[in-house]
Amino acid sequence: MAQEEDIKYFVRVGNTDLDGTKPVHIALTGIRGVGMHTAQIIAMLAKVDEKETMGRLKDEEVDRIREITDSYSQRVPSWMMNRPKDVYTGEAKHILGTDVSTVKDEDINLLRKIRCYRGIRHETGQKVRGQRTKSTGRTGLTVGVKKKKE
Questions:
Q1: Do 33 and 26 touch, CB atoms closer than 8 A?
Q2: Is 76 exposed, middle or buried (0-12, 13-18, 19+ CB in 10 A)?
Q3: Residues 91-100: pLDDT tens digits?
Q4: Residues in contact with 6: Cβ distance below 8 Å, sequence separation at least 6, in sequence order
Q5: Which of 102, 78, 82, 101 minimizes the C-alpha distance to 91?
């Protein structure tokens, strides 16, 4: 009974509230930009058992996880990052949190600005990655037969 009371239901890591009732490697995927593999590596670098419940970790272990997430791009090779070559600086980065959506929007705006094929497809709201569009992706149109009003 005492173990149930000492669990923290929310753990703050990387400007994100993580679920304290889940295992560490599952809870870390709540941060945008962190998938299963990245979460396992963060737990391994922080020397924390990835199967342990996040809310039962000691404060020192949570601080180690915070430190690892902040310095993740310095600790892993470039092929393990979600942005191996930045468009503007050319360096390898791993983007976390709210920066993920900001960087994605900037990339799409760059594609529109240089008027490449993908940028034009983004502008017109069509499929970008070579999918077929003959019968799919018909948003906004009504498909079917309309009944006559009497």
A1: no
A2: middle
A3: 999 999 999 9
A4: 56
A5: 78
**pLDDT tens-digit profile of 128-146?**
999 999 888 887 666 566 7
Structure token digits, residue 100: 């993920």
Close Cβ partners of 19 (under 8 Å, ≥ 6 residues apart): 9, 10, 27, 30, 54
Tokens coding 92: 């390898």
Q: Six-digit token pair at 87?
A: 């468009």
CB 27 within 8 A of CB 54: yes
Strands 16-19 and 10-13: antiparallel
Question: Cα separation of 22 and 111, whole Å?
Answer: 39
- Name residue 95's amino acid: I
